Each structure stands twice: as structure tokens, then as C-alpha cells.
């Protein structure tokens, strides 16, 4: 049956219409260029019961391009899990770059730490075991933090994306980028609610509202890209 008309979504959705096409992209352009420790971390994450949550490697490759284009040095990550996107960021910022990485699930991060250590990149990471909102609020208590971050990546609780956005837009410098993962939420954003698994409905509604609000946010230039589970790339312009 065609993916679009399926009445429910799998936990690891293929937004592209053809799984074969995604396989082709991954095998031709992504996996051959994926750094070795990153590949090892991704493979180790498949043993985690929630391993499907790791950032899609093709979306990761696009993130690398932005990190490099921005010459990003100071970044924030909301939603670390085992650390695929975190290690990817650490690999692509300079030696004295810093990532503030926030996640309440330290246990998942511990799976990734040996790979980050093997890559010699733990010194770039300030891991904060916490929900992200109070951490962002604390950063904003010091006006010196405003407009200082080059890049932020959000891949966490989808119902809080707008709350993160309101804070991150102040922390990111003009010209900097905030990227949000899962903004197509398994393709459910284009389905009637009745066709969506009940467990996915609340975050589908949050994602729909978030996508609309981002599209109306005049402080940004955006691209809503159908890669991975949907990636919205926002450049702060004012
Ligand atoms: C999809 S996973 C992140 C995947 C990660 N980017 C990667 O590449 O592996 C979502 C993560 O968000 C975290 N999370 C959930 N609620 C959060 C919150 N309020 N603040 C920060 N992180 C949160 C979860 O603990 C989980 O590890
Ligand atoms: O199915 C999911 C679930 C999540 C998820 C669950 C609980 C949290 O506290 C945060 C996120 O994240 C996902 C994800 O990032 C993804 O790419 C695919 C599926 C899921």
C-alpha cells in the first residue's frame, strides 16, 4: 500500500516516498562519508530499545554543511539521547568550540560517551542533565548570553518546540541557525487526525501549530526540508 494513505505510522518513518530511494541516498552519499566513531555510535544505538530516535544520518549530513558554512563555534543541543547529533556537532566545530547539551536522560547519553571519548571530543561538551526550559531560562538571565550562539539543534519533546524557539531566538546571533527535527512527525502532519495513531496525535497537533507559527515568524528565513523526519532550518535575520 502507498505510504501516504497508510492509516498509521511506523516508529521510524520514511518521509521519502520510496524506501529504495532513501537507501540509495544513504549508501551513495551518506554512509561512505560518515566519520568512523559516528558510525560506531549509530550502530551501538540500534541496541537501545528507543534506538529509532537517533537523528537520521542524512539529516545529520545537512547539519554538518550548516555548521561548516557558519563556522559555528558555540552551539546548543536540546535532546541528546545517545549523542549522534552531539558527536556530529563536536566533530564539525573547531578545537576550542563548545556545545551546551541538555537532556534529562543521562543513562542514554552514557551509551554514547565512550565513542565521544574515542573521538577525543569530550572537552567540547558541557552536558547538562535537565529538562531544557529551565536551562535556557538560566542562560537568558545573563544578558551577556543573548545573541552569542552560532547554531542550535532541537530534537526533544515536540510539544515544547515553540517554548524552545522563543528562548533560542534570543540566544542565537543574527545570522545564526536553529534547526528543528521531526517537523513532519512521521508524515502525520499531512494526514487527517483520524488516520493517525492515538499515541502520535498530541505531538502531531503541537507540530502543526509549531510549523504554522514558524512560517509566520518574520524574524526568520526558513527552509522546511523533507529529510529524515522533517527538518526545519531557521536563520535569524532580526
Ligand atoms: C529523539 S531523542 C534525541 C536524539 C538525538 N538528537 C540523537 O541524535 O540521538 C529525544 C531526546 O529528548 C530528550 N528530552 C525529552 N524531554 C526533554 C526536555 N524537556 N528537555 C531536553 N531534552 C528532553 C529525551 O530524553 C531524548 O533523549
Ligand atoms: O517516536 C519518537 C519519539 C521521540 C521522543 C520521545 C520522547 C521524548 O521525550 C522525546 C522524543 O522522538 C522521536 C524522534 O526524534 C524521531 O526522529 C522519530 C521518532 C521519535
From TrEMBL:
InterPro entries per the UniProt record, alphabetical: Cation-dep_OMT, SAM-dependent_MTases_sf, SAM_O-MeTrfase
SUPFAM superfamilies: S-adenosyl-L-methionine-dependent methyltransferases (SSF53335)
Keyword Nuclease listed: no
GO BP terms in the entry: methylation
Molecular functions (GO terms): O-methyltransferase activity; S-adenosylmethionine-dependent methyltransferase activity
Pfam families named in the record: Methyltransf_3
Keywords associated with the record: Methyltransferase, S-adenosyl-L-methionine, Transferase
Protein family per UniProt: Belongs to the class I-like SAM-binding methyltransferase superfamily. Cation-dependent O-methyltransferase family.
Function as written in the Swiss-Prot or TrEMBL entry: Methylates caffeoyl-CoA to feruloyl-CoA and 5-hydroxyferuloyl-CoA to sinapoyl-CoA. Plays a role in the synthesis of feruloylated polysaccharides. Involved in the reinforcement of the plant cell wall. Also involved in the responding to wounding or pathogen challenge by the increased formation of cell wall-bound ferulic acid polymers.
Protein name, as recorded: Probable caffeoyl-CoA O-methyltransferase At4g26220
